[in-house]
Amino acid sequence: MADNPAIRGDADDSVVSKADGERFRVLRRRMGLTQEELAGLAGVSRRMVQRIEDGRWDTVSHGATRRVADALGARLRIVITWQGELLDRLVDAGHAEL
Predict the structure, then answer these.
(1) Residue 55: which of 25, 79, 31 has the closest Cα?
(2) Which of 18, 20, 36, 45 is the most buried (most CB within 10 A)?
(3) What is the mean pLDDT of each run of 10 residues along the chain (98 residues)?
């Protein structure tokens, strides 16, 4: 398992991270908030908001990200993907066994 890049943390998810960060930035600007104002509403530091918007997720906790999303009136979802549609088939097979 240690050879799996996702487990090692080598997986290239920078495109998703940057896109998600941009979504936070767009929502913040749409609401007319500065990073400092959003940080105050969410109870996090301005630097944390900056990291989220820049897509630097390695130092951001799930809780902080959720608080920022909540302050923006947005919903945070975690989507787990694995080998295309194979994960969906595994989940469906597991449900079929119940």
Answers:
(1) 25
(2) 20
(3) 45 63 96 98 97 91 95 90 81 68
The two three-digit tokens of residue 56, written as one number: 């630097």
CA atoms within 13 A on the CB side of 35: 12
Predicted structure pTM score: 0.72
In eight-state DSSP terms, residue 88 is: H
Q: How do the domains of the chain map onto residue ranges?
A: 5-97
pLDDT of residue 91: 83
Task: Please check whether residue 51 is in contact with residue 60, taking contact to mean a CB–CB distance below 8 angstroms.
Answer: yes
Does domain 5-97 bear CATH number 1.10.260.40? Answer: yes
